[in-house]
Amino acid sequence: MIDVFRTPDERFAGLPDWPFSPRYTTADGLQIHYVEEGEGDPILLLHGEPTWGFLYRKLIPRLAAVGRVIVPDLLGFGRSDKPVAREWYSYDAHFASLERFALELDVREATLVVHDWGGPLGLRLAVEHPERVARLVILNTGVGVGAPSDDWLLFRELVRRAGDDFTPSRLVQASCVTRLDDEVLRGYDAPFPEPAAKAGVLAFPELVPTEPGHPSAAAMAAVRESLARWERPTLVLFSDSDRVFSPAHAERLAAHIPGALPAEIVEGAGHFLQEDRGEEIAERIARFVRA
User: pTM, whole model, 2 decimals?
Assistant: First the structure.
């Protein structure tokens, strides 16, 4: 049996712009939280490090007007269960839980929106289950193997040094152009009231394959190779002020995917462009879905 931390519900009470009722599904004894709003073809929104579905709160109402919006929290994040052993976390384990989630909710003809670590996970879902994904929206992320930027290496070192004292809201604020309200920052810290809850946020940076021998490398390389044959509609939408995923990165990614439109760049936004330009991004995605 896996030892897990389950964040108390009261930690999530009264968060700004988060009126959505919690829903849950269970696989292998682990509880996955998600919200679901709207009707029609699914629009599956995947978060990354160190966020949860709260990141998409500005997008959910707008996108619910054009589809069935589904926003899960990855295991280790948000209101989902958090295995306390760092060893549980791997690219394969996270993908297996996401795959089970998509099958459990019978996601088909989906618009898949991915950001940060949601990219390697969601893009793998797309290429391994293409019958379930009609189009992609790729926000500030990537997939593959290789030496990351100096800024990313600095981020990984900061997480290592912080350890149990790591505070997610500080990373989110440092990666935004906009000054976030205290209550918004509380939302990002809400899932992690004690060290036992933080195994996932501490593990994710270590799962990035910086060299070919890394445990995640072979699977991520296979996903990237498959994307070179992805011909379904794809919107690559990055921001202009992300120190890790630059506009040049967006252009290279769009050129790699046959179905991608020319990369679009959102001005005045950092890594968490959902915070800086949430309404604008929601409108761009809604137009893409309608088209």
Answer: 0.97
Rg, C-alpha atoms of the chain: 17
Count of CB atoms situated within 10 Å of the CB of 89? 21
Structure letter (DSSP) for residue 230: -
Q: Phi, psi (5° rounding) for residue 157?
A: -65, -40
pLDDT of the residue at 143: 94
Identify the helix (H) or strand (E) that includes residue 26: strand 23-27
Query: CA dist 134 to 89, 117, 129, Å?
Result: 29, 20, 10
Give the type of residue at 7: T
Nearest partner of 286 among 34, 38, 23, 36, judged by Cα: 38
Contact (Cβ atoms closer than 8 angstroms) between residue 190 and residue 7:
yes
Return the CATH class of domain 4-290: alpha beta
Residue 248 CB neighbours (<10 A): 10
Instruction: Give the residue extent of every domain in the chain.
Output: 4-290
Residue with tokens 């909710």: 105
Active site residues: 116, 242, 271
- Cα–Cα distance for residue pair 65/73, rounded to 1 Å: 22
| pLDDT-flagged residues of the chain (< 70) | 147
For residue 107, what are its two tokens? 């996601």
Q: Give phi and psi for 260, each to the nearest 5.
A: -80, 140
Q: Measure the CA–CA gap between 275 and 130, rounded to whole angstroms.
A: 30
